[in-house]
Specification:
The protein is an alpha/beta fold. It has a single domain (6-467), classed as Alpha-Beta Barrel (TIM Barrel). The protein has helices at residues 13-16, 39-43, 66-80, 91-94, 105-120, 136-142, 149-164, 185-189, 199-224, 246-268, 273-282, 290-298, 349-363, 389-407, 457-467, and strands at 6-10, 84-88, 124-130, 171-175, 229-236, 239-241, 303-308, 312-314, 339-340, 346-347, 367-371, 413-416, 439-441, 453-455. Helix 3 runs parallel beside helix 5, helix 9 crosses helix 12 and helix 13 (349-363) packs parallel to helix 14. It is globular. InterPro entries: GH, GH_1_N_CS, Glyco_hydro_1, Glyco_hydro_1_AS.
């Protein structure tokens, strides 16, 4: 591995920060996503948050209260030896409604203190600008990313953070898992569907607006600080054909293209031919300005970041389609060659190497694994220890696959930041029980607990991995 490889961890404001109305923060879309049976209807954009029962529980509003614990948490990251820490900013903490002329100083100051705390320990900040988080006022007033006005709101937000943190932040990511817009429209982009709307038209118009905003942000970042690097991000993981039936191979290619579509534009600067034909077939007409296409063409990203948890299978056979795995936002056929996590995510370390090679072959840009990990129900023993050997096993095999992609295949990889390096609220289910971290946080699904932080067995294992630059994985 390169000597400057960025080992670290990753979180998101909406899953760990809390303090949802402190410091002048406005409401964000995630603040109205509940735990329980109504979670998926809300995330899918099929149910209006205004129709939720009064006793709904919103786990992101406190999360693990990193807003008040960040110094303690960063000290633990430093103890593990983190070279970088990927986290996100809450847009509504900086622009409470998204339309203010001037940013909320208290919000900027909070993030500046977080960044300074990281730099104190020589931890490189890697910042996601928009991680499933839109000011609720923009969703209510304009329909969120359905409306082009959000491009200007987003660029105004970017201008404020790029100028404030110039020289302190080198790595930026515009949108977290941008392709999630297609799968969880409200969670991914604040989109609520109205009766009678053409769903594909709405999704791809929102996608166009986000892609233009990302390109404009990339241009602005380079103008303000030529030393910084701006990346895109997708929820990755190849689709395998369920069989060698050409129909299955074709279906897998179509599924992969659904995900690559966004990155094709962000990395290559133009809409791919297959997407244009899809728009034509579906009767999708983008509300786009001629200038949009020049902006996309001239402002491609510097690197490609992605999350990887599992591979997936695709088939054209309707009978096999009934065997979808559970617990996965992107439904997949069960792969008979793979084991699965407690939440149905299929465990495929070699799939990470395949994904790395696929992305590098396709784009020839540096890659960055910014999410990878195992969600599991951890239990604390009476002596305060958490023996998460299953997580160590998962990460060990994925790191081996990652290193093979670099050392044997020649993939240019910037870093690796396992997801939820400290336990946090699950984005998909809203649970605390589904834990990913090296650090245990005392809190349950109903919001009860002391929030006390404790080191798991994996904490010490990952500390050794970083210390040896991946040489020691046992």
């Amino acid at each position: 591995m390169r000597k400057d490889f960025l080992w670290g961890g990753a979180t998101a404001a909406n899953q760990c920060e809390g303090g949802y109305l402190e410091g002048g923060k406005g409401m964000g879309t995630v603040d109205v996503v509940p735990w329980g049976e109504n979670r998926f209807p809300i995330m899918l954009g099929e149910m209006n948050y205004k129709d939720l029962p009064d006793d709904s529980y919103y786990p992101s509003r406190e999360a693990i209260d990193m807003y008040h614990h960040y110094k303690e948490d960063i000290a633990l990251f430093a103890e593990m030896g983190f070279k970088c820490y990927r986290f996100s900013l809450s847009w509504s903490r900086i622009f409470p409604t998204g339309e203010e002329d001037m940013p909320n100083e208290e919000g900027l100051k909070f993030y500046e203190e977080v960044i300074d705390e990281l730099l104190k320990y020589n931890i490189e900040p890697v910042i996601t600008i928009c991680h499933f988080d839109v000011p609720l006022a923009l969703a209510d007033k304009y329909g969120s990313w359905k409306n082009r006005i959000l491009i200007d709101c987003f660029v105004h937000y970017c201008d404020a953070i790029f100028r404030r943190f110039k020289g302190k932040v080198k790595y930026w990511i515009t949108f977290n898992e941008i392709n999630m817009l297609l799968h969880l429209p409200f969670m991914g982009a604040g989109i609520l569907f109205e009766e009678g709307e053409n769903i594909n038209q709405v999704k791809y118009q929102a996608a166009h607006n986000e892609l233009v905003a990302s390109a404009m942000a990339t241009r602005l970042a380079h103008e303000i600080d030529p030393e910084c690097k701006v990346g895109c991000m997708l929820a990755a993981g190849n689709f395998y054909p369920y069989s060698c039936n050409p129909d299955d191979v074709w279906k897998a290619m179509e599924k992969d293209r659904d995900n690559y579509f966004f990155i094709d534009v962000q990395a290559r600067g133009q809409y791919p031919a297959y997407a244009m034909k899809f728009f034509e077939r579906e009767g999708i007409t983008l509300n786009a300005e001629e200038e949009d296409y020049r902006i996309l063409r001239e402002n491609t990203v510097d690197y490609i970041s992605f999350s990887y948890y599992s591979s997936r299978c695709a088939t054209a056979d309707p009978d096999i389609l009934k065997k979808s795995t559970a617990g996965n936002v992107m439904k997949s056929i069960k792969n008979p060659y793979l084991k699965a996590s407690d939440w149905g995510w299929q465990i495929d370390p070699l799939g990470l190497r395949i994904t790395l090679n696929t992305l590098y072959d396709r784009y020839q840009k540096p890659l960055f694994i910014v999410e990878n990990g195992l969600g599991a129900a951890d239990f604390m023993e009476a002596d305060g220890t958490v023996s998460d050997d299953y997580r160590i096993d998962y990460l060990r095999e994925h790191i081996k696959a990652m290193m093979d992609a670099v050392d044997m295949d020649g993939v240019d990889l910037l870093g690796y930041t396992p997801w939820g390096c400290i336990d946090l609220v699950s984005a998909s289910t809203g649970e605390m029980k589904k834990r990913y971290g090296f650090i245990y946080v005392d809190k349950d699904n109903e919001g009860n607990g002391t929030l006390k932080r404790s080191r798991k067995k994996s904490f010490y294992w990952y500390q050794k991995v970083i210390e040896t630059n991946g040489a020691s994985l046992e």
